[in-house]
Design goal:
This protein has 144 residues and is mostly helical. The protein has one domain. Helices cover 74% and strands 0% of the residues. It has 6 helices and no strands. Helix 1 packs antiparallel against helix 4, helix 4 runs antiparallel to helix 5 and helix 5 runs antiparallel to helix 6. The longest helix is centred in the first third of the chain and has 25 residues. It starts with 9 loop residues before the first helix and ends in a 5-residue tail after the last helix.
Length: 144
Amino acid sequence: MNTFSRKPNGLFWVVSIIALLWNIMGVLNYLSQAFMTEEVLATLPKEQQIMFPEVPAYVTAAFAIAVFGGALGALLLLLRKKLSKMLFLLSFLGIAVQMSYGFIMIENSDSYGPGGIFMPILIIVLGAFLIFYSRKADANGWLS
């Protein structure tokens, strides 16, 4: 059985690089939150100081799965590997768990201001787009 891979267009490389940068920012955000010191926590607004320690471990784990899965998926997309599709799906499942907690469980969403609703929606949309785009790239023969 012969398999072939076609050369991706320029937009593929732009999307892949932006996806990797976006997910690296997510990894950095996760690390800063997961390893937040008491001193840094004390600099946050009071409402956020109360919420951070109350975040369940499963939400933190979902956050880690979302950002590390997305970063690895983006790296594999850049390397033109089909495994990126599965990692973007896994990342999206992490996003869904994390964001459902944020939308349903947190009562003080006002403490984050307008970004408190905009960023989660943007994260969900971009996560879904990366699943779609990696599937499209595979259908176009760009992934092996």
